[in-house]
Design goal:
The strands form two sheets. A seven-stranded mixed sheet has the order 3-2-1-4-5-6-7, sandwiched between helices. The chain has a two-stranded antiparallel ribbon with strand order 8-9. By secondary structure, it is of the alpha/beta class. The protein starts with 6 loop residues before the first strand and ends with a strand. Helix 4 links the parallel strand 4 and strand 5. Bound molecules: 5-O-phosphono-beta-D-ribofuranosylamine.
Length: 206
């Protein structure tokens, strides 16, 4: 990787931050040519904050309260991201839908990880939705973000089997193993300039 400027990431989180940890680990292992300029959390209690601090990554706690609407909150988020030089915004368990303010500020440069094989089971409790439906396979999807709920062009997906006795927790744990590979892999493709959005399709360049 010597010689190539690392891609600057802004990572948005709300919870435990295992996906954030996977990104940190891949960067520290020298596998992912990126840097995390800042981690932004809308939840002051998120364990993801501790993970970032342990790795010396700047953290901004940016709670929803105090903002009269989503667009104003997002405008403030854009400012934080720009201040930290973010080129690619990664939603790593960020539990908010983005408005056009964020999406327009980072066109084709926001990605999300979702714990189901989209377009099946968008939104909250995707793993429970999959269990309730009775599918034999679920998985995870990394996709570009638009203003819809988990509707943007798909970058990659990993398939995970659903076992007969799965609970939401056991299926989530199995899906997370796949997430921790897929998200850094998608970021790496982006950082290498190998993702091209063509309508609903994402072409992976050689
Ligand atoms: C993941 O399952 C991700 O797919 C979803 O939120 C969860 C975040 O987990 N969007 P973590 O905070 O990265 O552990």
């Amino acid at each position: 990787m010597a010689g190539k400027v690392p891609c600057m990431l802004g990572v948005l989180v709300s919870g435990g931050g295992t996906n954030l940890q996977a990104i940190i680990d891949c960067i520290e292992a020298g596998w992912l040519n990126a840097r995390i300029g800042c981690v932004i959390s809308n939840n002051a209690d998120a364990y993801a904050i501790i993970r970032a601090q342990k790795s010396g990554i700047p953290v901004v706690i940016h709670e929803n309260s105090g903002f009269s609407d989503r667009r104003k909150y997002d405008a403030a988020t854009v400012e934080i991201l720009r201040d930290h030089g973010a080129e690619l915004v990664v939603l790593a368990g960020f539990m908010r839908i983005l408005s056009d303010v964020m999406v327009d500020a980072f066109p084709g440069a926001i990605i999300n990880i979702h714990p189901a094989l989209l377009p099946a089971f968008p939104g909250l409790h995707a793993q429970q939705q999959a269990l309730d439906y009775g599918v034999r396979y679920s998985g995870c999807t990394v996709h570009f973000v638009d203003c819809g709920t988990d509707t943007g062009p798909i970058i990659m997906q990993s398939v995970v089997p659903v076992e007969q006795d799965d609970s939401e927790a056991s299926l989530s744990a199995r899906i997370q193993i796949a997430e921790h590979k897929a998200l850094p892999a998608a970021i790496s493709l982006y950082a290498e300039g190998r993702l091209k959005i063509e309508g609903r399709h994402v072409r992976i360049l050689a």
